[in-house]
Amino acid sequence: MNSRLQFLLESLRKLLRRNAISRVKKVLKKSRNEDVASVMRYLDESQRHQVFDLLASDQDRSETLAELDENLFIEIISARPIEHMSQIIALMSVDDQTNLLSHLPEDLKLEILSLLKPEDMAELQEMLDYDRETAAGIMSTEFFSLNEDSTCAEAIIALQDAADVEMAFYIYVVDLQEKLTGVVSLRALLMNPPQTPLNQIKTQDTIFVTQDQDQEEVAKLAARYNLLALPVVDEKNKLLGIVTIDDVIDVIREEATEDILKMAGANETAYEDSSAWSNFRTRAPWLFATWMGGLAASILIGLYEHQLQKQVALAAFIPIVLGMGGNVGSQTATIIVRGLATGHVEYGLGAKYLVRELTIGGMLGIFYGVLLAIYSALRYQNDQALALALTVGLSIWASMFTAAIVGASTPLFFHRLKIDPAIATGPLVTTAVDVLGILVYFLFAQWFMGI
Amino acid sequence: MNSRLQFLLESLRKLLRRNAISRVKKVLKKSRNEDVASVMRYLDESQRHQVFDLLASDQDRSETLAELDENLFIEIISARPIEHMSQIIALMSVDDQTNLLSHLPEDLKLEILSLLKPEDMAELQEMLDYDRETAAGIMSTEFFSLNEDSTCAEAIIALQDAADVEMAFYIYVVDLQEKLTGVVSLRALLMNPPQTPLNQIKTQDTIFVTQDQDQEEVAKLAARYNLLALPVVDEKNKLLGIVTIDDVIDVIREEATEDILKMAGANETAYEDSSAWSNFRTRAPWLFATWMGGLAASILIGLYEHQLQKQVALAAFIPIVLGMGGNVGSQTATIIVRGLATGHVEYGLGAKYLVRELTIGGMLGIFYGVLLAIYSALRYQNDQALALALTVGLSIWASMFTAAIVGASTPLFFHRLKIDPAIATGPLVTTAVDVLGILVYFLFAQWFMGI
User: Fold this and answer.
1) CA quadruple B273, B278, B283, B285: dihedral sign
2) Quick one: which of A15, A315, A393, A445 has the fewest CB in 10 Å?
3) B114 to chain A, closest Cα gap in Å
4) Rounded CA gap, A111 and A326, in Å?
């Protein structure tokens, strides 16, 4: 948190504790609503409600509400008269309304919808029907479009009248059927003589997305071509809305968080929902793969009980053989999963990365295998010392090498099947690595130690 | 990769194989340089050089070069006459030049600098001195600033003359000492009468960053306030440059990738550098913590060799006890690390998250502990069956509970010390969890089984 927010938070806490209402009002009036929304997260529930009440106007309440975390805006909305809340929500932009309503419980959502103006309600209903993870789901319908025959001068006048288009970076040029035919930048408007028709200065090769394209692809396109907004069209090329750069940034952050949490076997509800019980329910199944893997390992070890009894030192090295394999496996899988997400690993380069990861896994295995063999030879100096050293050294190597194979090929395989590779990383890879590691270990033990 | 890029790549491959030079030229001419740069990654080295040669102009070469991955632009630059390359580099914007040169080997960098115009060289030298991870390191010096007394009409004329300012979203208003005093949006220019002085319509409360602020903070500010560009000032408030939204997006993606890879004990060189040897060198040290942890576990097990000999079934459950603990530990640590990075976990909420994670860890531990105790009781039906079931059940619980403590508190602790918590997650947490897990396991075994 930066010092600006910290100062705001501390002032609010202090003034609320002293019940200095008029000073709280003054502080809120001077602050940006984005900042107020940020610090509300750190206040307790009753303070949050007080702050929301003390905001200067319903416009400020609406802007603050739009920036709040999901669990907080649900808390605020549920605790207040629904008529007042629907007035506040009516002041938001359509994309903020859609986002907010889509996260509310069904009955609350319907109640608020019924209190809005009929035309707003119809538009919102349509927006709510789009999948939230697609271009249409994150688009804004407040864009600025003009007919191809309009001139620069007309565009400037039209722009001056359109006060409610929050971020007009581009003017979208459409034909009589409202089909998108090009884009004119605000700057091109200024640079050309007033009588120039938009048709002459519009871009020829417009980047656009269709309504059902995944939000991740939309974000990639905006980032690749450095665009401030991307037009969204339907299957007939009719312009439906635009995805603006601020939403693109949200998507990029969201997708990164989602991937990180998925790889660790958790998911985004980790933040949105603070109840331990619902977190237990989402995390427990992820651990089941680990549990099954552990059970398989224990059954395998059970099969070698007789050998272990004769050479109990073998048990001491089980954790290190599995641990090193597990770590290399998740390193490798993470590199491949993230590479697939960022576009570094793709399209025919899979084999190249696989070979590279196997080489690295093999090298790391040799290094740590030799290290452990030396330790083992120094630690256990009996007649089986050499055999034990060979067993543990080669097992570390084999475990790390197979881990690299599993870690690199699993996400590539899932990607080819069009299944999200982030899911493959955590539990699946470590489980496979555990079972293979144990197997390899006891095979080497049988071989070298003759037990 | 989207179908547009896939089509481009396949066309280029096919035409290059057939040596259809004029058709390759035609395809390249029709394509966006960002797309050409993207697909060059998937061509082989000689094809890459051919494509680069066949681009229509040095302007296109310069734009393509600016979009290439680090290892690829080094490959292109090193293999070509330095005089031509410096002409191409001279066509880039200053921030692209800085980014490119800062990644080149020292001698190549100096050689190219010496071939540039003296004034360009001086400016670049200054840019190269800034830390690459700060606001100044990612800023562009091509911004648009005007004196406070200028009018809207003057601003529009000045804007029409400034062809080289690639993305002018805002006009920065400065006083006679070039100190930043406010910002005027392009839109405000259009909305106000031509004679209005900028002073009257500029923002009062300007968001800016200082030159040495971390790029991650810059990105957070731009995202929080939905800004298209952020002005960068020195300690005297003099305007030095701007960070544009496209660079902000790059920072957000880079930082997410960096965090993900760090947590898995790898780092960003995983993509930039494709040599197995240098990857070995960066990844081997990360594994050392795991190796030490494994060694500590093996020494601990060695201390209980006598007990193991008597009750060899104990060895069979070591992997599952450690595995479950390790997984919960990294789930928890990942949730906290990502929460700290996105601002969900911060400022006084640490304790709240700690308690929640312990609760979840405890619940998961009870669930899987009971499950394993039942399995153990069914599998090993001897006179020690109950004692063994109690030992493994309680060990799973204790291992998962301590893992949650370690996983949640380690990143919070590092964050407080201002050390990047992403580093804490991987090796450190799993190692601590391994050692604690073994200890707890044998303590329970001694207690319940009397061995």
Assistant:
1) negative
2) A15
3) 31
4) 51
Q: Is A219 helix (H, G, I), strand (E, B) or coil?
A: helix
Instruction: Count Cβ neighbours within 10 Å for each residue of A192-223 and write b for 16 or more, e otherwise.
Output: beeebbbbebbeeebbbbebebbbbebbbbbb
Q: How far apart are the first and last CA of chain A?
A: 60
CB count within 10 Å of CB B44 equals 10
Strand (E) positions, A218-372?
229-233, 239-244
Q: pLDDT digits over A50-88, tens only?
A: 999 999 999 999 999 999 988 889 999 999 999 999 999
Q: Measuring CA to CA, which residue among A190, A223, A186, A225 is closest to residue A205? A: A225
pLDDT digits (tens, 9 = 90+) for B66-106: 999 888 899 999 999 999 999 999 999 888 899 899 888 88
CB B240 within 8 A of CB B139: yes
Residue scoring higher pLDDT (B417 or A20): A20
How many Cβ atoms are within 10 Å of B134's Cβ, its own excluded? 19
Domains plus CATH for chain A? Answer: 3-129 (1.25.60.10), 145-257 (3.10.580.10), 269-449 (1.10.357.20)
What single-letter amino acid sits at B433? V
- Calpha distance A155→A151 (Å, rounded): 6
CB contact under 8 A, A331 and B257: no
Instruction: Note the pTM of the prediction, 2 decimals.
Output: 0.79
Task: Tell me the β-bridge partners of B174.
Answer: B147, B180
State which residue of chain A sits closest to B294, comparing Cα positions: A320
Query: Token match 């259009």: residue?
Result: B190
- The shortest CB-CB distance from A367 to any of B284, B335, B426 is to B284
What the block records as the tokens of A390 is 């060979």
Chain-centre distance for alpha carbon B70: 15
CA B116 to chain A, closest CA, distance in angstroms equals 27
Least confident residue range of A160-164, A363-367, B7-11, B248-252 = A160-164
Gap between the Cα atoms of B438 and B451, Å rounded? 16
